[in-house]
Design brief:
Elements: E1 3-11, E2 20-25, H1 33-43, E3 48-52, E4 61-66, E5 71-72, H2 76-88, E6 95-101, E7 104-110, E8 115-119, E9 124-128, H3 131-138, E10 154-157, E11 161-166, H4 179-185, E12 190-196, E13 199-205, E14 213-214, H5 218-230, E15 238-246, E16 254-263, E17 266-285
Helix pairs in contact: 3-4
Length: 291
């Protein structure tokens, strides 16, 4: 039986069995997209990455990223987790590497201590979204809302867009996600967060999927910086640092350290940093080829 090697690592944490688990599959050049999707469903984690030789001369390696349902052009915790895992395997040393993925070429800075900093793609800021609709999806009330005329719910991202809903911190534990309401509203990625003194406490949801809450989400942490600048919660010029705590309600606490650079009230770049802990390794059977 043909097999491929893999590792499972916990991302955005300095302790095993916390953070966001990720499966990293090696030698994926022999796999078709349908086989990758089957393996991602078997691991049943938020994402699984498949390591491939780069096709761009400017890249250090290439990854394809799959949820249990579909392929993604980019995601944060898979990018950070894969980079540190490959460094620990000796594929390259600490320092700057370039990941090739569906979103293009993304630089990362990897440390010998087992952390990586990811620079997101170009920031995007979308149109406002009705707060009442999002509160209904989250099972919250108007009393839980923490926005204002400037800090309104809207989409933002640096390679993968999320809808951001500001709430009181005490409301986070009360969220009861309404998947049907999310489907009717067309909401597929939702970040519900509180903000105080440079720190966000957040929960990230992907309604309607088998893994519908994420304990650590690098792409959402990047997008949050874009939202914070637009909302006036971080300075509109220069470099600002902020921290995201996530996964507490899932009993998988995670820490994401971020920066956002802004000019003229608009975010121009964002980074997210986290540690990676190895927890398992082995080989898994290659599924039958379908496509």
């Amino acid at each position: 039986m043909s097999t491929v090697a893999y590792e499972v690592v916990d991302v955005f944490t300095d302790r095993p069995f916390t953070g966001n688990p990720l499966a990293v599959v090696f030698g994926a050049e022999q796999l078709g997209a349908d086989q990758m999707q089957t393996l991602a469903r078997e691991f049943n984690l938020a994402e699984t990455t498949f390591v491939l030789p780069p096709t761009d001369p400017g890249a250090t390696y290439r990854v394809r990223i799959f949820t249990t349902e579909a392929e993604l052009p980019f995601a944060g915790h898979p990018s950070v987790g894969t980079a540190v895992t490959l460094m620990r395997q000796g594929r390259f040393g600490p320092g700057r590497v370039v990941q090739e993925c569906g979103a293009g070429l993304l630089p990362l800075e990897v440390t010998a201590a087992g952390a990586a900093t990811l620079t997101g793609a170009a920031p995007r800021l979308g149109d406002p979204v009705e707060a009442d609709t999002l509160l209904k999806i989250a099972g919250l009330t108007a009393d839980d809302y923490a926005g204002d005329p400037v800090a309104v719910p809207r989409t933002a991202g640096c390679g993968l867009d999320w809808v951001f809903l500001p709430v009181r911190r005490s409301a986070l534990a009360d969220i009861r996600l309404d998947h049907q309401a999310a489907e009717l509203a067309g909401i597929t990625e939702l970040s519900v967060f509180s903000w105080e003194d440079g720190t966000a406490h957040a929960r990230m949801f992907v309604p309607g999927t088998s893994v519908w809450e994420d304990p650590a989400t690098g792409s959402a942490a990047l997008g949050l910086g874009v939202w914070l600048v637009a909302a006036g919660r971080l300075p509109g010029d220069g470099l600002s640092a902020y921290r995201v705590h996530q996964g507490v309600e899932m009993k998988r606490p995670s820490v994401l350290d971020c920066t956002v650079t802004a000019a003229g009230g608009v975010a121009t770049a964002a980074t997210v940093t986290g540690h990676v802990q190895p927890v398992a390794s082995g080989r898994i059977a290659v599924p039958p080829f379908i496509g």
